[in-house]
From TrEMBL, chains A, B:
This is 3-isopropylmalate dehydrogenase. It comes from Tistrella arctica. It catalyses: (2R,3S)-3-isopropylmalate + NAD(+) = 4-methyl-2-oxopentanoate + CO2 + NADH. Binds 1 Mg(2+) or Mn(2+) ion per subunit. SUPFAM superfamilies: Isocitrate/Isopropylmalate dehydrogenase-like.
Amino acid sequence: AANKKLLILPGDGIGPEVMGEVRRIIGWFERERGLGFDIEEDLVGGCAIDAYGVPLADKTLDLAMGADAVLLGAVGGPKWEPLPFEIRPERGLLKLRKEMQLYANLRPAIVFDELADASTLKHEVVAGLDILIIRELTGDLYFGTPRGVETLPDGTRRGVNTMVYTSPEVRRVARIAFDLARKRGSKVCSVDKANVVETTEMWREEVIKLHGEGYEDIQLSHMYVDNAAMQLVRNPKQFDVIVTGNIFGDILSDEAAMLTGSLGMLPSASLGDPDESGRRRALYEPVHGSAPDITGQGVANPLATVLSFAMMLRYSFDMDAEAEMVEQAVRNVLKSGLRTGDIMQPGMAQVSTTVMGEAIIREL
Amino acid sequence: AANKKLLILPGDGIGPEVMGEVRRIIGWFERERGLGFDIEEDLVGGCAIDAYGVPLADKTLDLAMGADAVLLGAVGGPKWEPLPFEIRPERGLLKLRKEMQLYANLRPAIVFDELADASTLKHEVVAGLDILIIRELTGDLYFGTPRGVETLPDGTRRGVNTMVYTSPEVRRVARIAFDLARKRGSKVCSVDKANVVETTEMWREEVIKLHGEGYEDIQLSHMYVDNAAMQLVRNPKQFDVIVTGNIFGDILSDEAAMLTGSLGMLPSASLGDPDESGRRRALYEPVHGSAPDITGQGVANPLATVLSFAMMLRYSFDMDAEAEMVEQAVRNVLKSGLRTGDIMQPGMAQVSTTVMGEAIIREL
Ligand SMILES: CC(C)[C@H](C(=O)O)[C@@H](O)C(=O)O
Ligand SMILES: CC(C)[C@H](C(=O)O)[C@@H](O)C(=O)O
C-alpha cells in the first residue's frame, strides 16, 4: 500500500512537547509494524503568526488539503491575545475546519477506571462513563452571516450574528451519529432548542426524517440544550451518542469533558466527507489547550495526543487493531501507576512527558 | 401604605399545588404582619390555551402590566406538546418576559447544608455553594429577526435565527450584575464567546466600559462560555455573580441549578426597569417545571415557589427582613428533618406539599 500522507501541526505551548511523543510512537509503528507514513510538519496558530504573519498560511492549508490526515497539537497563548479578532491563533483552526469541510467533530468523554476519582463528581456517577459527543463544526453562529457590530447614528452599538443550518448539513452530521452509534450502544440523543429556535426545530425534524430512512434500529431521543446541560451533571451515563450543533456542542462537549476530571486524557477527531478516491479529510487533536503555564517544563500529559493518534488510525486508516493497541497501552500505563502532573494521585509515580511516552512504547 | 398589587399565575401541572402553599404564607403575612396585598389570579400556559385559546390572553397581560409583581408557578405538559410553535405554553412565558421587558433573570444556585449530599458532585466541591447567575432575558436568539425556516427551489430547507444585542441592552443587565455583586462577594464574571461571536465581543467591551464608570470596586473577570461550562463542574465556588446573554444563560443557569442537586429548592426573579413611580416590573417563579409525572398527588415540593415569594419581598417590596424570615423558615424546616419526595434522604420524614407549607408557617 502507498504511504499515508500525514501533516503534523504541533502548534503552540505544550503542542510541540506532546507531539514529540506521538512522533516516537509513529516511529515505533514504522519500525515494528511496517506502517509507512510520509510526514510533513508545519506551523499553525501563534507560531504561524510569528513566522508567516497569519495563523494559517496558504501553503499550510494546501498541505492539509493534500494530506490523508492532519494531527494538531494546540494553538494560542497570552502572547497573541491582544491581536485583533481576524488574525488571532484560533482563526487558523476555524479556517482549517471550514476549508477542509470537517463538519463532524467527535469528542469522546471517557472515564478511565484508574482516574475516576479525579472527577469532581461522585465515583458512582461517572465510573465507566463512555459518551461520544458529535458536534457539527462548519455551520451555526461560527460561520453564519450577516455578522459584526455596527454603530448607529446615536452612538448605540448593535451586534449581530447568524445561526444558520441547511437540511443537508443536518443530515450529514446526523448520519455520522447514527453510523457510529451502531458500533456502540445504538442510542443517539439529538440536542436542540426546538421550543424557541426555529433553526433547531428544523434540525430536529431532519434528524427524525433521516432516522426513518434506515436507522430504525437506533434508539433516537431529543433533548433541549438546557436540559442536556443538566442531565450531563445529573446522570451522564444515560447517554451513548449525543449529536448537536456547533455552538451547543462547543459548550456541552467541554462540560462533558470536565465531568471526566481528566482533560489531559481526551482526544478528538474532526471528519469531512470521503472524496472520489474514498479518502476522508480529517484532523485529530487533543481537547486540552496549549497550557502556557507549564510550557517548556517537560511535564505535559501526552496521552490525549496519543489517543488522538489512535483515533486517526481508526477513522482515517481503518486500522482498528492498531488503534486498540495504542488505547490498551494507555490503559496499561495508567494501571502501572505512572502519572503526569495533571492526573497525579497519592501513591502513584509522577513522570515527565518523555517518560510517559517511553512507557507507552514499552507497552506497545 | 397602599396595598401591593399581586398577580398570581399558578399555571399548569404542579403549579397550582405549590402556589396554594404560597397563598397560605401570604395569608399569614397579612394576618400577623399587617401586609396588604390585592391579589388577582389568572391563567397562563396550557390551562390558558384550554380556556382562552392562547397561552397568554391580552387581559392577563394587562393584569401583569398593572401589577406590582407577578408570581408564576409553572407552564407546560404533554397535553400541549403537539401544538404548533406559535401557541405552545412556553410562548406565554416568552411573551410575558418581552412585553414586561423583564431583561434581568436572577437565578441563584444555592446549596443548602442539609441537602449538599443530594448533589452528584462531591460534598467538598459544592458544600456552601452560593452563585447568582444573571441571564439577559429579552434579547439574543430568543427574539432576534430574521428568523424562521425557508424551503429553497431544490427542496433544501434553510433555518435562520439571529443573535442580536445593542450596547444599552448589555449595559442595563451588566449594571444589575454589578449592583447585586456589591451586596454579595463583589465579584462579577461576564460570560461570552468573544473569540468567535462578534456580538459577544461587543458585550465584553461594553461590560468593561461600564465597569470603569463607577464599578471599579467590583472584581470583574471574563470567561468564554465553553470554559464556563467546564469551570462550573470543576470548581463552582470560584464564582460569585455570573452575567451572560439569554441563550448562554439558559444553558449555564440550568447546569448550575443541577450542581446543587435540589432543583425543587431553586427560585428565580425576572426584573425590568423601574418606571416613573419607581415601580419595577417583576416576575417570580420556581426554576423547576410543571412536573406532569407527579401532578395532582400532593407530593410536589413547594419550597422553590416559597423562596420565589421571598425574592419578591426583597426585590419588589424592599422587605429584606421579611424575605430573610421566609428564607430562615425554609432552612429551619430542612433542619427539622422534613422532606418532600424529591429531596428525601434516609432517616428524614417524608411529607406532603401541604404539610411542608404548614411547617413553614409554623416556623414563621
Ligand atoms: C478556540 C475556539 C475557536 C474553539 C471553538 O470554539 O470551536 C475551541 O473552543 C474548540 O472547542 O475547539
Ligand atoms: C421554556 C423555555 C422557553 C424557557 C427558556 O428557554 O427561556 C425555559 O427553559 C427557561 O429557562 O425559563
